Each structure stands twice: as structure tokens, then as C-alpha cells.
Amino acid sequence: MDSYPILEFDPEREAVFEPTSIIKPADVSEYCVFTFFRDVIEKIVNENNVRTVKLLNSEMGKHPIYEMDFQGKKIAFFHSPVGAPFAAAALEEVIALGCRKFIACGGAGVLDSDINCGKIVVPFSALRDEGTSYHYLPPSREVEADADALQALKDTLDNNKIDYITTRTWTTDAVYRETRQIINKRKAEGCLVVEMEAAAFFAVSKFRGVKFGQMLYGGDDISCEEWDHRDWSNQSSVRERLFWLSVEACLKIKG
Fold it and tell me: Distance between CA atoms of 80 and 86, rounded to whole angstroms?
């Protein structure tokens, strides 16, 4: 027996309680964007011809999955919960519903002050400093984004002539335990940003055999002696732009 429960990975494919136990397949697009931007979701729903595919339920309330037409194709979108366990459970349920190709968009703290607030960042892998991913994949230092989804993101940004950086991201469960020593260690490992879901998203998608990529924008700065919020959560134009780029990229995912 391993000395730590988090390392006791069980490769058994079937759990006692599966998402398909409560979610039945629906008539929904295979393409889906997960976004953390409630403000953008509300604007899109109010200004576009959008239908509600399904209402997911949790103790936090109702979580609608929407669908709309974009450039002649249907695409679903969803307001993702924050934090790896909740976000991963939501992804499981949306997969059970029928979606297969995903792009997520959100913000991230930066570990390098040269990354401006609003700068687009595309993670090619996530350092697994959370717990959820270890229930989907054997223990490892990192988990990679899906190659096809990653390429779709790069192609979309290149086609739109948008400057961006690619990096390893640091996924953590403990937003209030980002100490100076750990920040420096993660930066030395090649992580330029930190968030709370990417490793779990990538792990769930690999386990379920779906495609998943993520696009972030530079938010608060934790690289300096004092934390700098940089008003990152009020970047409305950046957030909406990121959403539409994610829609475009999602529809480009091959395979």
C-alpha cells in the first residue's frame, strides 16, 4: 500500500456511481466551451438566440448548458464552477450529455510580472498540484493538454494575428497557500501561470477519451513581494474576446 492516499490510483474503469447514472444523452453539439466568466455568459445569452439544453443540479443551484449557432455550426457553452473537484464533476456530466470537444477559457495568476494583465496564455501541460487528477490518471508530475485541441487554439490565435505565449501551468487547490518558496519552485519548473482547474480538466478528458484544451489570460501578479490584483477580474473586453476565440477554436478541433 502506498504511504499517501493520493497515490493510490485505481485503474478500474467503472465507479460505483457514474455520471451516466444521473445524466442521459441529449441532442447537443459535440463542441462545448467552458468559461469561468459569468458576465460574458449573461451578455451572450441576452444578445443571442440561445437555447437551454439541460439544467445540471448541485447544492449550489442550477447550472444551465446553453447552445447557439456560430458560423453555421451548433456549439454548446457552460459557466464552469471554480476549483478542480467541482469543475471536473461538471465536465463529467457534460461529457455524459454528449459533448466531446472542449475549450475552456479563464483567468490565471502570473508568476512573471512581464506577462501583462490580459495577455493570452495557452497551456500545453499542467503541473498536478491538486487532488482530482490523481483519481483519473496514475501519479505523475504533469498532464498534457490534448494535442488536437492545442493545435486548434494555436491556429485560431495565429489566424487572428493575436500575440500569445505557451507554457506549463501550475494547477493548485489552495489559492491562499501560494507561498514565495513554492512560487519560485513552480517558476523554476517552467510554470508561468497558476490556476485551479487545468490539470483536472486534462486528466478527466484523457480518462473519458474526449478532447480538451484551455486558454487563459494573465490576471493578478503573484511574482512580486506583494500581491498585485491588477484589476484583472474587470477586464470585460478581454474576457468576451477570449470567449469568442474559444468558440472559434473549439469548432476547429479535429479528430
Answer: 9
Whether residue 103 contacts residue 146, with contact meaning beta carbons closer than 8 Å, is answered with no
Q: What is the 8-class DSSP label of residue 17?
A: S
pLDDT per residue as tens digits for the range 193-214: 999 999 999 999 999 999 999 9
Number of domains present in the structure of the chain: 1
Domain annotation covers residue 113: yes
Task: Specify if 7 maps to a domain.
Answer: no
Beta carbons of 248 and 31 less than 8 angstroms apart: no
Does 9 reside within a domain? no
Query: What mean pLDDT do residues 93-97 have?
Result: 97
Length of the chain: 255
CATH number of the domain to which 94 belongs: 3.40.50.1580
Computed from CA positions of residues 164, 168, 173, 179, in that sequence, does the dihedral angle turn out positive or negative?
A: negative
Q: Which grid cell sits at 190? A: 517552467
CA distance 209 to 188: 31
Q: Which domain holds residue 132?
A: 18-250
Which residues, in sequence order, are CB contacts of 226 under 8 Å at separation 6+? none
Mark 83-117 as b/e (b = at least 16 C-beta within 10 Å).
ebbbbbbbbbbbbbbbbbbbbbbbbbbbbeeebeb
